[in-house]
Amino acid sequence: MIFNAPDTLFKGTNSVLGAALFAKATTGSNSQSFLPNSTYFGTLAAAQRYGELYGTNLTTSAFSFVGNWGSTPSFTSVTGTDSGFMLVFSSGSGSPLPGPGITLTFADGTWTNPPVCVPSPGYWVYNLPGISNGATFSYIGTPAPSTSYNLTVICNGKQN
Fold it and tell me: Which ranges constitute the DSSP H helices of 63-152?
């Protein structure tokens, strides 16, 4: 079998993904199309940005510090909703201890099932507490004193 050569990423009969996934296989003079062609796939793959339409905007009062972030850590700002947000905060002075965390109490109440949340950057871990009204995120390592940090999260699941 010889596959068509790719020429673009999504568009055209010979797209990279089309060649890999929705290829025409040719054996001798017999040409067969096993799955929808890449033009069809390109249409399925194209999407606009997704955004939350109805979530309540979070405020810093929805968050609390867990563990030792040093003396008087503070939340600076938050942008987003329960389903996706970016939190900016500062560790306190003194000597923060390893593995502190941050807890969010969802602004729009409980989820039908606890959501799956993905934190970023990579030095954050989502703790799977099995609760539906909030989420806890742990910092991997020991935070530096008096330093600004951010926590960006996307949560997905069945809400209310």
Answer: none
Residue 123 has pLDDT above 60, yes or no: yes
Sketch the domain layout of the chain as residue ranges: 2-45, 60-156
Using the CB atoms, write b or e for 105-132: b if 16+ within 10 Å. ebeeeebeebbebebeeeebebeeeeeb
Residues contacting 43, CB < 8 A, separation 6+:
none
Give residue-wise pLDDT tens across range 36-62: 544 444 544 555 555 666 789 999 999
The predicted pLDDT at position 128 comes to 73
pLDDT above 70 as % of the chain:
64
For residue 121, whether the previous peptide bond is cis, meaning omega lies within 30 degrees of 0, is yes
Instruction: Indicate yes or no: pTM above 0.85.
Output: no
Here the tokens at position 159 are 């809400």
CATH number for the 60-156 domain, one of 2.40.30, 2.60.220, 1.10.1200, 2.60.40? 2.60.220
Strand order in the sheet with 148-156: 74-81, 84-90, 148-156, 116-120
Let me know how long the chain is: 160
Distance separating alpha carbons of residues 132 and 124, to the nearest angstrom: 20
